[in-house]
Amino acid sequence: MDRKTDRRSVKTQRALKKAFAALLNQKPLKNITVKELTDLADIHRATFYTHYEDVLDLYRDFENDIFENLTHIFEDPSLSSYQSFYNALLDYVQDNPIIAKILFSNSENFSSPLLQKLLDYLITACKKVWSEENNLTEITTELEYFAHYRIHGIIAIIRHWICCDYSMPLDELKILIAKLDATVDSLMLNN
User: Fold this and answer.
1) I want to staple 53 with a disulfide (CB 3.0 to 4.6 A). Which of 20, 39, 57, 121 is the partner?
2) Are 27 and 106 in contact (CB under 8 A)?
């Protein structure tokens, strides 16, 4: 569905996405109705259908926005190390707790399409950095496994952090991840 971009449309879509995030934080996607969304967003039902075909269409647009925001952060040229990359992700998670909870902790495993898309993006970025840093012409099977281990590990730590209600201070978590990541790097470079 074509998305309108005038100011009123953008404002309406923002209100719908905010209401959608609040509902998605409370219940599964399949239980969210257009009526609930429009009541919470304080818009007319017909207005919803001007912008979206159904709740699933809104969900896809919501996911695309999250992914675009994350990739925009990750493409920042000032992120020159894995640690700065992870720190940016952790800052995003802390600054966007509702979206982070939806993205990282509402899915039972790594089966969420958005989370899988993010994992694929991060794994590809990880392999690209390794290739550039070490002048590699190809990624070996072993490096492929290291990339998966590294990225799935960071996601698992983030999920645990969210599930524990951010009980570890952000700065301490960043230090812990830096230590773990240095260990992975030393293993990778020694093989």
Assistant:
1) 57
2) no
In angstroms, the Cα distances linking 176 to 20, 169, 182 are: 34, 11, 10
Question: Is 94 found in the same domain as 54?
Answer: no
CB 24 within 8 A of CB 32: yes
**Crossing angle of helices 55-74/7-26, nearest 10°?**
100
Structure-token pair, residue 24:
């998605």
- Structure confidence at residue 136 (pLDDT): 81
List the one residue out of 176, 29, 169, 153 whose CA is nearest residue 103: 29
Distance CA 33, CA 59 (A): 12
Whole-angstrom Cα distance, residue 85 to residue 19? 30
- Based on the domain organization, do 107 and 178 belong to the same domain? yes
Average pLDDT of the residues in 173-186 = 87
* pLDDT score of 162: 93
CA proximity to 95, closest of 76, 115, 73, 75: 73
- The pLDDT, as a whole number, for residue 79 is 76
Predicted structure pTM score: 0.80
CATH number at residue 41: 1.10.10.60
